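Section 5.1 Outputs to date
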Amino acid sequence: MQDLRLIFGYGKPYRRDLVAAVALIVIECGFEMVIPVLMTKLIDDGVPARDMGVMLRQGGLMVLCAVLALITGLLYARFAARFANGFAAELRQAEYAAVQKFDFANLDRFSAASLVTRMTTDATVLLNAVNTGLRPLVRSPVMLTMGLCMAFVLSPRLTVVFLVATPVLALLLAWIVSRVAPLYGRQQSAVDHLNSRIQEALTGIRAIKAFVRGRWENEQFDAVNTELSDASTETFRHAVLNTPAFQAVMYTCIVCILWFGGHFILEGGMTVGELTGFLSYVLQVLNSVMMFSGVFLQMTRSLASARRIREVLTEQPDLANAAQPVTAIPDGSIDFENVSFKYNANAGKNALSDITLHIPAGATVGVIGGTGAAKTTLVQLIPRLYDATAGVVRVGGRDVRDYDIAALRDAVGIVLQKNLLFSGTIRENLQWGDPHATDEQLWAACRAAQAEEFLRRMPDGLDTDLGQGGVNVSGGQKQRLCIARTLLKHPKVLIFDDSTSAVDTATEAGIRQALAQLHDVTKLIIAQRISSVQSADLIVILDDGRLHAAGTHAELLARDPIYQEIYASQRKGSDAE
């Protein structure tokens, strides 16, 4: 219930609507409770005496109560809808804002498909719980209380039937909920698996077609689809027991009331009108209780969704600003002092081990090494995408943990290994680097990134629509646009994480030449080709997460066997070509 209390706290901006909706339900119940009393008088006084005046008066009052109950019900629907949809919107907004604050380590703990499910399906479950559950949740106890009181007034002896039926209903509901509750969690996990499969298949649809793996993908989807179907079937198989169980109790109550009520009438202790009114209360109360049982099952599912949403909302970012963060980064000098890092505290081996390295401001540094050497991991510590497990990383002479995270990342431009563009125009994507950049500045960045030539050929130039994820440009064009976007930030540190792998050597040379003009920017270039870094002021070689060697191209070529081997293999390949 603590999960629900936290989740429904996001409905506070709409609590007036909630209070109005609850009040209208109570008023509606009051009107409905009056109808059986009026009906009792009509049957006992009006019908036997054939008094049309009594029948018309009582009938008119019954119609009036029914109309007023209808009006209050319609007003309730309006206020309840405002509360439910407003609450769901606030909840989704809070989840999305929480995800935006996540660090890379937090995102490692949640799959993308799971986060999508939690912001859509789980939020919708709670929305539906409010939409369909608020009315019976309030109405049931009100009707039960009013109905029992009115029934007791009409016949205290027959009210004993309720006292027997109530614990039976409670036991049935408890048994059903105990069976269904764990199944709802399993069902939502199955939705996660289904969404994950769909997301992966749609993202890699071109690879699937290229390798003719459509049939295999269909089999994989069938597996997760069957998992969801089986989980839903098993859940429904137990949840559906609710209705017949409650109907059995309800009809047993009615039979008992008719049996005993008939005896009371024959004995003269009860009138036909009183029995009719009593039955009306019985039906109203039992129907309300049966509706409440359905809501209780829905609340059980809501608890599973609320728990999953609460995990997102209460997840604390691993990285936090210092008490008094520094916002000014003086220069682009970088120091690694005995730095070690592991992605998981329980990991048996460090991804980086005992790295000590000094990079002066304005220097150009190449970083090379084999696959899995932790080159990307090393540069991710500079803008605090992760924090070092041991040791200190300094930028501008200060520990990166002293800086305001936003200010630090704004001073560090990083072109990721996986290039990502967003839906929209080229101009809108480039302005991620500088929202206020003029056309002249945009074109200057594109010239430096060797993107101007293909942009000029596009019919709409900077206003060309890229499509979802930049599907309308090639891999090399996408890389160059990402470089231009990063250059527009005018960073003090510029990191290229294998960001020219999809361009030809002539284009790469043009990009290197443009970067050489940025004298006040520290440049780190991760590359596989020695030709990409051989003109750097310093070349760093990583091997299995350790700093193997550092020096200029000439120094490493003269004394380092790993560098000599890489150079020889690439030179041989180049000569053969």
